Amino acid sequence: MVNLEKLEPLTPEFLESIGFFWHTDGDSTPYIADEAVAVTEDEAEAYYEAANTLYAMYVEAGEHVVQNDLFHEIGIPFNLVDAVKKSWENDVHWHIYGRFDLAGGIDGKPIKLLEFNADTPTALFETAIIQWALLKANDMDESGQFNNVYEAIRDNFKRLIVLEGDLEDFERYYKGWKILFSSIRGSIEDENTTRLLQKIADDAGFHTAFAYVDEVEFAEDEGIFFEKTNYEYWFKLIPWEAIAIEESDLARILTKIMENQKAIILNPAYTLMFQSKGMMKILWDLFPNHPLLLETSFKPLGKKQVQKPFFGREGGGVKILDEKGGLLTAAEESYGEQPSVYQEFVELPKDEMGRNYQAGLFFAYEGCGLGYRRGGEILDNMSKFVGHFIKG
Predict the structure, then answer these.
(1) Are strands 98-103 and 356-363 parallel, antiparallel or unpaired?
(2) Left, alpha or beta for 315 (phi > 0: left; psi -120 to 50: alpha)?
(3) Which of 47, 259, 261, 340 has its CA 20 to 30 A from that of 359?
(4) Is pLDDT above 80 for 342?
């Protein structure tokens, strides 16, 4: 049983004062739970080790895909294959942050990978800022969390310059290079999450600016511009697969910009490999029966299983099937005719009301921050964010 601590909730007025406007769901219920999950030191350490191990496995799997030209097998759009290869081949294309979704880790249940949101993960603001503020507002030790997301991402921005070198050398090697941060117009969640990342990059020591993506100018021979200023780095909170499918001209131009070494795009194009749920089949091929993995295939498994579209988000298109392939539960939102993986079903930890808990573990060079989503059998965009604390 999940161990919960009741908390006094943060008010909508306070949340909006710090830029968090998506605090109430469509059914008028609070999105941020007024409870926190109690986690032991050993459980927090196990989550940390799991994230580090899984990332190393993804890197090995990525190399396997590149060397064996398996891009089509995991659903990489043909017009981004060159961008994926270019970014993979050069360390300057640094992965800033991602989020592992994990089953287990509490209530005695083993940690199992569900998927890796490597490109444009949600819940950054919630994990890095809100759950910290929730403990502080309840006179609890706000440092008593597995949560150094802000600091880890700040240091990872510095690694754009020093790579695997000493972070203290950032100022020595930094030559005034600029990062432009962009989101789509009209989504306050995407915009303020992007602005949070901009603030973190500011703290790292970069010169930064923000622009909606429709305000940005792209030239394959010259680079990326906003208000006549050239930017060496462009961070976009826009999924790579959306660029490939909906903005094919932009996909081509960005590939040329990378080839001409006129700008570096963040997160890198190779994170699309990690983002694809097809990679979980590759992982199972490379690391069969690994304790952190669930059996995953491109074909039905003949056991209770979860069918997931390669690039679905927030539970969209997910189906739970019985051992004969019969439908047990399905998400309302569909992702069309995407290819799917079939992943062994695993029970999530539950509280006394029968609600399911899925761990979200941010990764920025190493595991750096834990939070939970709470909901039904399929965790969709109506699931709640639940913070945590480390109990003594």
Answers:
(1) antiparallel
(2) left
(3) 340
(4) yes
- For the stretch 260-299, pLDDT in tens is 999 999 999 999 999 999 999 999 999 999 999 999 999 9
**Alpha helix (H) residue ranges in 205-278:** 240-246, 248-259, 271-275
Q: Name the strands in the sheet holding 367-375, side by side, starting at the edge strand that comes first in the sequence.
A: 4-6, 32-39, 384-390, 367-375, 356-363, 98-103, 112-117
Contact 116, 50 (CB under 8 A): no
Please give the model's pTM, rounded to 2 decimal places.
0.96
CB 220, CB 253: distance < 8 Å:
yes
The number of angstroms, rounded, from the C-alpha of 279 to the middle of its chain's C-alpha atoms is: 15
**Close Cβ partners of 81 (under 8 Å, ≥ 6 residues apart):** 71
Query: Can you tell me which residue has the tokens 């008593």?
Result: 144
DSSP conformation letters of 335-389: -TT--EEEEE--PPPB-TT--EEEEEEEESSSEEEEEEEEESSS--TTPEEEEEE
Residue 79: asked if its preceding bond is cis (omega within 30°), the reply is no
CA distance 131 to 145: 9
**For the segment 171-223, what is each residue's pLDDT rounded down to a tens digit?**
999 999 999 999 999 999 999 999 999 999 999 999 999 999 999 999 999 99
Residue type, 283: L
Question: Any idea where the domains of the chain sit in the sequence?
Answer: 4-275+350-390, 295-344
SS3 content of the chain, % helix, strand, coil (to 5): 35, 25, 40
pLDDT at 50: 98
